[in-house]
Amino acid sequence: MKLTSNRKLVDLHVHSNISDGTLSPKEVVKHASEMGVAVMALTDHDTIGGIAEASEAAAEYGVELIPGIEISAGFRDRDVHILGYFIDINNQDFLKVLETAWVKREERNLKIAEKFLQFDISLDLEAIKKISGSSVITRAHFARWLVDNGYCRSNSEVFEKYLGNDGPCYVPRDYMTRETAVKAILTAGGIPVLAHPMLYGLNSCEVDALVGELKEMGLMGIETYYSSNMGMDEQIVKGLAAKYGLIMTGGSDYHGDNKPGLEIGVGRSDSLRVPMQCAEDIFRAAGRTLSI
User: Fold this and answer.
1) Rounded Cα–Cα distance for residues 175 and 82 (Å)
2) Please, are residues 171 and 178 in contact by the beta-carbon 8 Å criterion?
3) Is residue 87 located within the same domain as residue 216?
4) Strand, coil or helix: what is 7?
């Protein structure tokens, strides 16, 4: 799919193969440009490893790039995601927080590999790291290796049989605390934003409590426009933004082929449009001026 209009799109939630997308940072910026995305944030999971490459590509393809990240943190035995915009990728305190998270991921990966041995499946962690393209390995990368090596027919089968939250090979994450995630982003000069608040399976009171708690910790924004919003979701999030004085942001959560049917800039079935005002507000909060 290639956009034919001249409309300048905004997408503040995009992944590359440095975490669990399928396009390289350069490829994803090029694709964004082809789709008519004028402002894009690269927000890979728990890593800023793709920012340098994406920044070079952004200059080449004429895309305004926001250096970002999506950090996983714990909340009531599940994870919530905190987006960080305009991260200083050289901030040493921030990098130490990411390193700690990486160590915990490595420990989890070894435990997952041990669980697969009960099914006579010996996972090749080095090969899986090559699939991931970085040190950040997710369950999606395990699934791809299992499919590629003939243990399952599809990613969905992997999760149904082994790696779903109730699966026999699932290992819970040792999550970073929400306060650590928010403070780390602030320390790196970034803008912390709660990602897809309606996607956590929480009721309205629980979502409100989560947002209020994060606001006290320093949360500055909330992802309002999102590909998976349904029904009144967007209106509910707008209400939370107004109640807590938060910047509204939005994005597709594009992952390339790992999320079929979800396109950069326009979401599912060309239904997503993130207002340019969202980009302007993020730039303003960071003390920057949007140049387009």
Assistant:
1) 12
2) no
3) yes
4) coil
